[in-house]
Amino acid sequence: MRKVNYKEKGITLIALVVTIIILLILAGVTLTTALSQNGLFQRAKIVVEKYKEAEADEAEKLGEVEKELDKIIDGETPPDPPKKPDPVEVTEKNLKEFQGKYVDIGLDTNDNKEVDDWEIFYVNEGRIFLIAVDYVPVSQLSTWGVMKALNDTGFQRCRDDYEYNVNWNMPETFLEEGLADLNLVKHTTYDLKDNRNKVNSIAVSHLLNTTAWNGVKTAASADKQQYIDFVIGGSTLEMWCEAWNVAVDGDETLKRIRADGSGTSGYYVGCEATNHEKEEELYVNGSIDSAVELTKLDKYETFFPHTAQYESCDGYWLASPSAEVNPGCLMYVRFDGGVKLYATTSGWYLGVRPVVSLESGVRIVKREGANKIYDVIM
User: The whole model's pTM is what?
Assistant: First the structure.
């Protein structure tokens, strides 16, 4: 009989146990890898979900393309993608549409940290004229160097406790150099230079002197100064009347007014509704003797930023002399609808609203996401 050598064949009990333990460990690792949160099964599930999402998205896009193709085949034109607003040229014909729109020339007029403090007022000879949205504080005029320029030629500012009022006190020098083109600013019915010795002509020469008001331009942001031609201290009466008539065209409740020349004396204010009857003061919203309905002026903030006295300020100066010679008076716009006269030596309760002439050919473009704000562009 053959003798069996157990050392050469089969396995020992210990080896079997070790083998089983190793297999159990490998099985555990495999199950953990497959069943854990980031295991193979979970990853496979995520891949399947991503695939289904991609498949659905692709089907949706293909469906949209198919619809557009069907429209083209059926003769329909697909809608154009949204585009940026086009620049607009403001002219005499479309001025009414754009009057009162805010234009950013990079200049804050009232220390409110806003640079859209200017609004479209008038158009002449292809130029857009902007007016300050409100009376400009004397402190801001000083910051721009305007008050110094005026003081150096014989004017004095108003008392310190009146924030907005400008007192043209005893003007001495007629400023001819730097005087704006009078035809361009519609100052055509009164010869200032022939009346240079009259106090009201001297005062107007200061309001219309572009050199004295150049600080307003240089205070604008550097990138916007290129669009500004010149600045004056206020609208002329003729410009104001023409702009007003554009604004109220079709509104029979408000008067259309005009400026009449009166020899060497100055201006009269006439009302077209009364056959150009000459008056030295006029309410554009009713007669002088009747109560004024201020609510009618609410939508004309470009011309009347306030319909009540504001910070001891009754209104703002116009750059036109009145027909009254003694004392020398200027025309002004009163808060309650009046276009009246006021003596330069006692004008303690009036402010200024400078006017900016943009360069010829400047257009405006609506700022994206803004309602009434426009930017300038050549």
Answer: 0.76
